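Exercise (ungraded).
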Amino acid sequence: MSEASVSSPDQPLLHVRVRGQRVERAFQYACSAASLALFGATIGLCIMLAWGGWPSISRFGLAFFTSTVWNPVTDVYGGAGPIVGTLITSAVALALALPLAFCTAVFLVEFCPAILRRPIGIAVELLAGIPSIVYGMWGLFVFAPLFATYIEAPLMSWAPPGSVWERLFSGIPNGSGVLTASIILAIMILPYIAATLRELFLSVPVRVRESAYGMGCTPLEVVWSVTLPFVRRSAVGAVMLGLGRALGETMAVTFVIGNSHRLPRGLFDSGATISSVIANEFAEATSPMHMSALLELGFALFLITFVVLALARALLGHGDAR
Amino acid sequence: MTQDGTIFGRSGRRRLSNGAFVTVCALATGIALVVLAAILISLLRNGMGGLGLALFTQDTPPPGASGGLRNAILGSILLCGAAMILAILVGMLAGTWLAEYSRDGWYARAVRFINDVLLSAPSILIGLFVYVIAVRPLHGFSAFAGALALALIAAPIVTRATEDVLRLQPRALREAGVGLGTPYWVIVRRILWRAAAGGIVTGALLAFARISGETAPLLFTALNNQFFSVNLLRPIANLPVTIFNFALSPYPDWQHLAWAGALLIALTVLAINLVVRILTTRAKRP
């Protein structure tokens, strides 16, 4: 190791060792090792869930996804209840949150009086960061009792017997259930989607919007025919990101869904989501098969969210709104 | 009938539908703000009473006794601190690799994509993963496993922030370094990281805010502890899981403590976000 910062003229340049070259290489290795660690963690996450769930996968096969039997005593498990519960609560939450979030974002960008624009925008962004356990607690202690008294009970007594409504509004009017969980989820993802959409709408060049106004478009027409098409791809990505959050959310749901493994029969019926089942049972799972079934549920959740997130990222592209 | 200016005409219809749209948007914003304000107000109302000195000086009580959250608060700080050290180390290096060394091949794109997936992966699955790799082999829940789970959530955020902000640094900075004959790792350390410090700190703060309220990944990694402990190999008390357990308990004392804890976490997160906002508006967003 000749440490020559000045090389003699007849020495081939290739053999000149610059000071700190070893550290240079070590630093580069450290950097790529760190990126490999993140890469490996995600791949490992997928593999470990599948590996841990393998006893359950091989024993129950496809029946795991169609059966709703969940019996730790006889060690027979079927995950249809939580899987369907996850999909339903997320879909309902998105259906509730998306229109509100979209309108809020439009309002903030197009119509809001200038004095209120910044405060409301900041408030929405700050609320997107509130931990989900706070939403869950609020749901359990404040929202559920009100919901039971003022929404569930009246709706159930109103629903004509034998109609679709009666089936839809069936369940126990105690405030917890699939719809309550969906509403809490919706409230949780609302500021998140609204903040992301707002960023996207603001990214539309002012020139483009102004030229539309210059042609005599009303704000509705500008939003609908200019702003929205301009950010369509990213907007879908942002919404998918919100959906991904709803699918994997644990704390906001576990408090208020009622926790039963049956398929929910109505919107007020208790149910479960994959994450709520894992949160409730994993630390207390006694038999290896119970644990394995929970890991298989986790694997299913990983696959579902992976598809949604991958689509979202592909649509958003790198460097766009987070 | 079809003349402009009447409500039946084309322009009238356009004006009507536009008016309806504006109203709906304003209403939606109103609803969203009212709901979110309701959450904050009930949080303040239920939690304020518990925010006393006892909250910080006494440990979590058995049901029926009075107490505070000292062990949980310290446990959370310890967990988040350890997680952040790990996350900043891995995140900064990985972000630097992506921005400076990767040459944007397929592997770099895969790493970036995987990092983005990890960034928004359900946190409970990260808890499961850490359980399988760090709790089961060591035969016990531990603070170390909890910190590892939180680090896995925070690291992608730091990585993303580091990469984004390094890419914003002008090429001239690097060229100036190369022109002086500086080894590249010194350029990264002494020039690029310094220029990007604001953005990296912002990312780290956001990551900290995110993990300080995370409950799901701690449920079966750090578990919880009724007592004060700083042993990294034993279960450790922490705020989120304590809140979860106390809120679902039938004892009013515990529920009050849960509210106070929730308020504490929410205030912390809000404060961090405000700091970030002040930092970024002063030095332009990364």
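Further reading is listed at the end of the chapter. For now, observe: Residues 21-60 of chain A form the longest helix (40 residues). The radius of gyration of chain A is 26 Å.
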